[in-house]
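Sat 14:20. Reprocessing the chain from the morning session after the first attempt stalled halfway. Input below, unchanged.
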Amino acid sequence: MRNALMLIAILTVATMVAADNAPTTPGEPGGPQEYQPYSWNLGVGRAILWDNGDTDGSNGYSHGTATAVGARRAILDDFVIPLGDVAWDIQNLTWLVIWDSGGGPSATGAEIAFRNDTGGGAPAATPFAGATVTTYTETATGRTWFSRAEYQFSVDFNAINVVAGVYWVDFLPIGPENSYAMVRATVTGAECWINYDDYGFMAGSALFGVAADLSFVLNGTVVPVELQAFTVE
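Finished this time. Tokens:
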């Protein structure tokens, strides 16, 4: 198995980035001299259902299609729907990335799926739902990590209705090159996971030395109790 490469190291030798798009391993923060918090730009009418937090600039994990990366690479993280909400209609996923080239080539969409939690801080092997993407946007945040501009990816899709419980969202952008999803060292719930075809397995981020979490938000609507279906005994 190839060794994972630190993002800081591969930036010094650009050809290595193109030749080996291995996941990065946690290293020194590569952001601005003074950290600037980011407020999600979600547009009108979007309600945040789950906010997994802003990146701390500590690292980024490779993710993309086989066409862009050479082998399909998805990343996953957990979220919780509280009992009081009854159910969510999830309609948007937004996350933060930097591009391999350092520029901002626009992707054309994303692949998004949802998995159950196994009960042990791990995602189920098979997704229970896949999202049908309707709109994809890419916006510069104005921040820079590892000398590369950061972008917000925002993906709208047909509503995924999920009842209270613990779940995992599984995602990657579609082309045109490798991108790195920004992470944070503070873990909420379980550490994020990776599912890389060229590594042959799905595993926790601690595989790379330190557990981390992805920076993302889920948006949509809370389904009120009165709109749920009940059976009268």
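The chain is about 5% helix and 45% strand.
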